[in-house]
Amino acid sequence: MSKPRTIIEKVWDSHVVHEQPGAPALLYIDLHLVHEVTSPQAFQGLRERGLKVRRPDLTIATADHSIPTTDRSLPIVDPIAAKQLAQLEANCAEFGIRCLGVHSDRQGIVHVIGPELGLTQPGMTVVCGDSHTATHGAFGALAFGVGTSEVEHVLATQCLLQRRSKTFRVQVEGALRPGVSAKDIILALIARIGAGGGTASVFEYCGPAIRALSMEERMTVCNMSIEGGARAGLIAPDDTTFNYLCGRPHAPKAKAWDEALERWRGLPTDEGAAYDREVTLDGSALEPMITFGTNPGMGIPITAPVPDPARVGDANERESLAKALAYMDLQGGKPLLGRPINTVFIGSCTNGRISDLRAAAGLLKGRKVNPQVRVLVVPGSQEVKREAAAEGLPEIFRAAGAEWREPGCSMCIAMNGDQLQPGEYSVSTSNRNFEGRQGKGGRTFLASPLTAAACAITGVVTDVRTLL
Amino acid sequence: MKPFTRFASRVVALPNRNVDTDQIIPARFLKTTTKEGLDRQLFHDWRYDAEGHPRPDFVLNQPRARGAQILLAGDNFGCGSSREHAPWALTQFGFRAVISTSFADIFRQNSLKNSLLPVIVPADVHQELFALVERDPEMTLAVDLAGQKLEMPGGRAVEFPIDPFSRQCLLDGVDELGYILQHLPAIEEFEAGRAVPINTLAG
Ligand code: SF4
């Protein structure tokens, strides 16, 4: 019998085009997602070399990062963003790529639309010029972010030069308690291993707490793999995966579906396969999590005090913590609970899907957001927006006093004018709390949609379990 | 790309850990459609105050930074977003090497493609380097990629790891796309042997 392999190795092995000693492997890419920010220089590179896009049929583009979330029938106010968005459409037209652009009824955040359209499938390799590409790992795909040079490589050749990553098993035992969600699992993992803890690795998320998650929740977990430093993160496909995929526009049909199912069922990690690293979390012990600092590893259970630099032994660590707290204007040893906030952002490729909006709306229904707080709800795609509308969610958000916007990355990256003012605090369902990420001088607490909705109601950092 | 040759330079020290690419170049500058003109935006929000004036206490604004080609950075440098604008901004400022104990994966890959050498050193050497720069801001280091070593003051050399393929590409100034294109026959053969799972152009 051949050596037992992890799903990570199986997907890798089946995509190696060429490998020679001393050089990285040439890896074939099944799906290439393109957006406006990291692609213009790659298209320019193709032009300069006189190259075409090798496989437009495995490539798809959308506009998400710099797109306004206001009325799409109005012209785009920011001329630089308008130019970038127009450039994307022009590049796609020139190179024969399908573009779900500003006015498409399928437009959305790149990591929301791939799965939604059924393009992301188990066992695939997926890349995008975006570090949150690991989102697609929720389907048992090997999905990772690349830079613009690599975007150009894939456009030109459908291949990338890659080195094998280490395998890192993340086992989550038990069952989540009420008020605790997928976002809390991933924030707890990153708090445990640190922002660089998974460097050079690919996570495989396993265990009963992971199996119990819906596809959308699995995407939330995989999405933030990069925040733990990992190249990618994935979850072996099962009936949850197949049920989600079945009937989606680009999913295989009829006989092709049956054949695909048979292949996909062979993907999960073999009994006895070895990992380079492993970590175990107890899902039933998890509390709602929140970050207090300036990288996603700086997270705590929401009832815990902010770590105190004075109690940190390691000098470098102490200094990093002190710097982060100075930026956040927080004091070590004090709780975050009760701390006033200015903004709540519900959206992004981490938590901008329909189940996230449902969770937030469920809490906001019949309640009002605190008048001191600006609340932005930004659906992840046009499809999510339509689903939400069909369920009456926009009315719930508006009645509560929240803003219901057009789909895009919005305040996750603050490129489009949706941003914090210097010094403001936001509770955000996105994935990065870096200095200035949500606007220059802005301060971000990352949390789940439930926690964000709870904070919107009270106007202070709140344990959602007190409102359930 | 130009071949990567041995050079010696002063060192700019930035000890912060986990410096993310949003600090190296904030997202609002990513609306550009070219690679040019990013050097002024390098570390923008640490480098300039709210009125756009240089902050004198930030290391890149100090005389020692002028002409420096080596950045000595804290652990896990370049984490976060995949933006290649980060190494573009660093190289346009003049940096040719970044030294740290560890780099985020995508940043490291992006750097190698832009002739920016990520030099990984052990923690004790890392600390020693910070101490040396602190003591003598004019200190110079030499980076010798062919010999895979950093030449420290006093003539001591410290080896650093780099995979042979990346090293050769840098030394020869070869870019990876050219290398991949040489393997087109293998790519065609691979494609011929498998079913196409999707067609983004359909429907
Ligand atoms: S929502 Fe945020 S993290 Fe996701 S793709 Fe957009 S900018 Fe990147």
Characteristic key phrases:
heterodimer; A: 468 residues; alpha/beta; Aconitase, domain 3; Aconitase, Domain 2; 3 domains; five-stranded parallel sheet; 17% strand; globular; B: 203 residues; Aconitase, domain 4; seven-stranded mixed sheet; 8 helices; 31% helix; binds iron/sulfur cluster
Describe this structure in words.
Chain A folds into three domains: 7-161, Aconitase, domain 3 (2-Layer Sandwich); 166-285, Aconitase, Domain 2 (3-Layer(aba) Sandwich), CATH 3.40.1060; 289-466, 2-Layer Sandwich (Aconitase, domain 3), CATH 3.30.499. The radius of gyration of chain A is 21 Å and the shape is globular. In chain A, strands 5-4-3-6-7 form a five-stranded parallel β-sheet, sandwiched between helices. In chain A, strands 17-16-15-18-19 form a five-stranded parallel β-sheet, with helices on one face. Chain A has a four-stranded parallel β-sheet with strand order 11-10-9-12. Chain A is α/β, with parallel strands linked by helices and 468 residues long. Helix content of chain A is 32%, strand content 17%. By secondary structure, chain B is of the alpha/beta class. Chain B has a single domain, classed as Aconitase, domain 4. Helices cover 31% and strands 15% of the residues of chain B. Chain B is built from eight helices and seven strands. Chain B has helices spanning 21-24, 44-47, 85-93, 105-112, 123-135, 164-172, 176-181, 184-192; strands at residues 7-14, 70-73, 97-100, 117-120, 140-144, 149-151, 157-159. In chain B, strands 4-3-2-1-5-6-7 form a seven-stranded mixed β-sheet. In chain B, helix 4 links the parallel strand 3 and strand 4. The longest helix of chain B is centred in the middle third of the chain and has 13 residues, at 123-135. Chains A and B meet through helix 2, helix 3, helix 5, strand 8 and helix 11 of A and helix 4, helix 7 and helix 8 of B. Bound molecules: iron/sulfur cluster. Iron/sulfur cluster is lined by residues 64-65, 109-111, 130, 132, 348-349, 409, 412-413, 430-431 of chain A.
